[in-house]
Amino acid sequence: MTQVHEMQATDDEVLADLHAWLAENWDPDLTVAEWWERLGLAGWAAPSLPTTAYGRGVARSVAVKIAQEIAAFGALAAPNGLGLLLAAPTIADHGTQEQIDTLVRDIVTGQQAWCQLFSEPGAGSDLAGLTTRAELDGEEWIVNGQKVWTSLGQSADMGMLIARTDPDAPKHQGISYFGIDMHQDGVEVRPLTEMTGHAMFNESFLTDARVPDAWLIGERNKGWAVANSTLGHERAGLGSGGGSAGNAMVVPGTIAGNLGRRAGDFVAPKPKKDATSAAKDEASTPKRRSGFGEILIGLAKDNGSSTDAVIRQDLVKLYILGELGRMNAERVKAARANGADIPGMPNISKLSMSNIVRLQRDLGLAIVGPYGMLHGYDEAANAVLNEVTGNPFLPAVTMTALYAQAPPIYGGTDQIQRNILGERVLGLPKEPGSTNDQPFSSLPKNG
Ligand SMILES: Cc1cc2nc3c(=O)[nH]c(=O)nc-3n(C[C@H](O)[C@H](O)[C@H](O)COP(=O)(O)OP(=O)(O)OC[C@H]3O[C@@H](n4cnc5c(N)ncnc54)[C@H](O)[C@@H]3O)c2cc1C
Question: Which end of the chain is more exposed for a tag (fewer CB within 10 A), N or C?
């Protein structure tokens, strides 16, 4: 019990520090770049990073509270995206101090956006089978190959690249990890449109692309461990409930065009009202629904399906899955406070998230019935549908239903998470026919 009280006091102290810092530093008239520079250099943009890497060394659950506090204060959130989520913690773990001082600095201050150049047309689950090559030429690496499913590659300044640097070593041992500049002739990014109507991910073609040797992260040919660090951060981040909490998600980096804009234009102004008029407004406007669970409950009450036994049970199940995720995050926090860890928890978090999105999809469609067939593929189509149906919450249901296929795949599919749990946590025998000890160059390849 004593420990719980001590941890609580520490969290509260951190949040009190943040509050005082925001009161002194938040200014809506700063540009986005100026604000992110202040936030990032003070350690509030990525507080779970170590103090030597522009962070404050706090637990991920505290970082989520910090993001919520920034939003509640009415200040612009930290630069979001794969740079902050994946590249920064990976470079903090494996990079040199010089790489941290340049690459991580530009991430936490939002100057540069990153993408993840891991998957290839022939290497997804079997990522170590990748064939993109990097060959050293003096002080530079020359890279050739193709990547796919590169999320947000179209707005990335830099990429986390894994490439084969020793084809004669066994497949996990001849891979290196680099930071690559996406602004060069040798990098071509082509968008892929998804069934949601958006084009979040891309194919990336690398043709004699160049990477300075100074941007090799970790040791040469030891990139598999570095890539696993990135994947670990990805799975843990996906399961932790996110961290941007509320205010608009502003895309960082030089391509999105947000850096020179006024920071205050991205946050909703705080209402300045006396108590009586606020209460009157509250009574006369329809209640806002925050969070997908609340949206579904509202929709079910509106159309009467909340009396359906199966729908009621599934609403409760969705709530319980969310609570289990929250409690597991608390268990990890408590274990870490005692210097321990819970093996396999990132994989369990990821599997749990897949179950949640699948239930959100099926339950949402069950509640709205035939309206689930009406999806607006862009803002204009959604506006028309909202007008015709009189229901502004339908797009959240159809978008969730279409996007629900993605989380069970990205960051390693559900089947791969189960393989990892089986082999590494339960100690079950590995799959038969492993080629892990043979030189990559001698392995049979497709076409
Ligand atoms: C929305 C989204 C965003 C993504 N963003 C990125 C990104 O930014 N950067 C990036 O590099 N990649 C990204 N990916 C790619 C993602 O990591 C891969 O799609 C994923 O690892 C699966 O690889 P694959 O598509 O090649 O499928 P495959 O590996 O071909 O798998 C096909 C099926 O076979 C199953 N399978 C394969 N091997 C096994 C096995 N050993 N045991 C049991 N079942 C198995 C899989 O589970 C799956 O069901 C993204 C994917 C999605 C959907």
Answer: C
The DSSP symbol for 132 reads -
Rg (CA), the chain: 23
Run of H or E including 206: strand 201-212
Which protein residue's CA is at the shortest distance from atom 38 of ligand 1?
Answer: 125
d(CA 106, CA 88) in angstroms, rounded, equals 9
What pLDDT is attached to residue 286? 46
At residue 287 the predicted structure's pLDDT band, cuts being 50, 70 and 90, is: low
The percent of residues above 90 in pLDDT, for the chain, comes to 74
Query: Cα dist. 388→118, 391, 392 in Å?
Result: 43, 8, 10
Strands 133-137 and 140-148: antiparallel
Q: What is the pLDDT of residues 14-44, one digit of tens each?
A: 999 999 999 999 999 999 999 999 999 999 9
Closest CA to 58 of 89, 21, 86, 83: 89
Asked if residues 176 and 163 have their Cβ atoms less than 8 Å apart, the reply is yes
Q: Report pLDDT digits (tens) over 262-276.
A: 999 999 776 555 555
Is residue 172 predicted with pLDDT exceeding 80? yes
Confidence at residue 2, expressed as pLDDT on a 0 to 100 scale? 36
251 lines ligand 1 (CB under 6 A): no
**Which residues carry out catalysis?**
234
129 lines ligand 1 (CB under 6 A): no
Residue 366, judged by CB atoms within 10 A of its CB (0-12, 13-18, 19+), counts as: middle
**CA of 416 relative to ligand 1 center, distance in Å:** 9
The count of residues in the chain is 447
Ligand 1 atom having least distance to the Cα of 126: 29
Q: How many Å lie between the centroid of ligand 1 and the Cα of residue 399?
A: 21
Distance, CA 401 to ligand 1 centroid (Å)? 19
